[in-house]
Design brief:
Layout: E1 6-7, E2 14-15, H1 30-63, H2 66-84, E3 103-107, E4 124-128, H3 129-134, H4 139-150, H5 152-160, H6 169-183
Antiparallel strand pairs: 1-2, 3-4
Helix pairs in contact: 2-6, 4-5
């Protein structure tokens, strides 16, 4: 080992190591030893910070209230619906998707009326902001256009659903990852 040259971790020059301490020597002088030690400390500190951030995000996830999980899942589904229905006219009034109007993801059966259909894309279609927000979905026209677009079978099925579903955090995580995956 005394005859082999090594590259100094501090200055980058090649040197012949002198075995003073047990183990491999990675520096040529005490000054370079300090530089190598500082570099190693930075690497260790970054690893510890990353581990701490991971623990912090996991702790935040554990204390996140159910309402936040529901909102995040609904946002993922709504984003999917808006992308899926891009270019299609408003489901309630046939206003074209020309990019001049804000688009909403409008539920045919409301979340309160049927929680089982809350995240079901067959119950959610893109509509203009005026129909969804100002006219509460414009449901009569919504139904007419759904029947025209998909047939009476889908509408009858949607109207027959009356179940109440209680979603767990795991269910909502699956919904979020599923719809975000569909977007990619």
């Amino acid at each position: 080992m005394a005859n082999s040259k090594r590259k100094c971790g501090g200055c980058g020059e090649y040197f012949r190591p002198v075995q003073v301490f047990p183990g491999p020597v990675a520096w040529c002088s005490p000054e370079c030893g300090v530089t190598v030690a500082k570099k190693r400390r930075i690497v260790i500190d970054r690893a510890q910070e990353a581990a701490q951030r991971k623990l912090t995000s996991q702790a935040r996830e554990r204390i996140k209230p159910m309402s936040k999980w529901r909102a995040e899942a609904q946002a993922a589904v709504n984003q999917y619906v808006r992308v899926r229905d891009k270019g299609l006219p408003c489901v309630s009034c046939d206003r074209p998707d020309d990019g001049k109007h804000q688009r909403h993801a409008s539920h045919y059966r409301s979340v309160k009326a049927c929680s089982a259909l809350r995240y079901n894309p067959d119950n959610i279609y893109a509509s203009c902001a005026q129909c969804n927000a100002s006219l509460s979905g414009n449901l009569i026209e919504y139904r007419i256009r759904l029947v025209r677009r998909f047939g009476v079978g889908l509408v009858d099925w949607l109207e027959a659903q009356n179940g109440v579903t209680r979603y767990t955090v795991e269910d909502l995580k699956k919904i979020i990852s599923d719809y975000r995956g569909r977007l990619n």
